[in-house]
Amino acid sequence: MGIVNLTPDSFSDGGQRTSDTEQIRFAESLLKQGADILDLGAESTRPGSTPVPASVELARLAPVLREAVRWNVPISIDTYKPIVMQTALDMGADIINDVWALRHDGAVDVVAKHPSCGVCIMHMNGEPATMQLNPMLPDRTGGVVTAVKDFLSEHSKNLTKHGVAKNRIVWDVGIGFGKTLEQNFELLAKQAAFLSSGYPLLCAWSRKSSLGKVISMDKAVPASERMVASVAAVILAVERGARLVRVHDILATRQALQIWTAAKKSFD
Questions:
Q1: Is the distance from CB of 198 to CB of 248 less than 8 angstroms?
Q2: What's the average pLDDT block by block, 10 residues per block, for the chain (268 residues)?
């Protein structure tokens, strides 16, 4: 899943592409590098970000989506606003990727009325503006894995209760969304614990600040210099059962996965 940030304030590449034409060309380049899915996001949910009106989000999204749906590839929309979900699905988008796990009023109804769309629900502690100021507290009764699994299970049951088939739902454990460095890596180390749910896992480690903290030495590592660490995290996540990987660096990730697949095939 290739990340297409249509925002001026993304943590990784905000402001690098300022026109619709540049965004469209960038999305095309991800496909040429081997992306299978494009994930379009028109509102930043980085730590400390502030919400934007739906009108602004749609103004950023619509021109690129209108072109992308012509390419005959799956298109995911990274949004939590029901009106944006509705508009995007009506335009031909295939997947709703919601960091709020469809908790906003009307969101579940939108995806329930579109029986062919996929749904990715993510665990987030708090909200983007403050989530890293008040991350999850340590839990002695199962830790972060149990807390995240219980949350995703609860919201998946709510979706199925509203008529959303189980095979339309994907889980994202929410790396970096209101969690400490240790909690993020615990989720990676114990990721296999989520597989018994039967829901496919989406891995979204790409360029996250936790990677930067681990590889930093005397100075901070900017997001643009976290590619190798991101690829390493992807391989570990796939080994632990992730079925989808949401990344910025498509070519490097695909090449690493090709090597992993070749080694696994030989071993098998």
A1: no
A2: 87 66 96 98 86 95 98 97 98 98 98 97 91 78 89 98 97 96 96 97 96 92 95 98 98 98 88
Q: Tell me if 119 sits within 8 A of 173, measured CB to CB.
A: no
Burial of 20-37, coded b for 16+ CB within 10 Å and e otherwise, reads beebbebbeebbeeebeb
Strand ranges in the chain using DSSP code E only, listed in sequence order? 2-5, 38-41, 75-78, 95-98, 118-122, 169-172, 201-203, 244-245
Positions marked active-site: 208, 246
Contact status, residue 188 vs residue 137, Cβ threshold 8 Å: no
The structural architecture, per CATH, of the domain 2-267 is Alpha-Beta Barrel (3.20)
Strand partners, 218: none
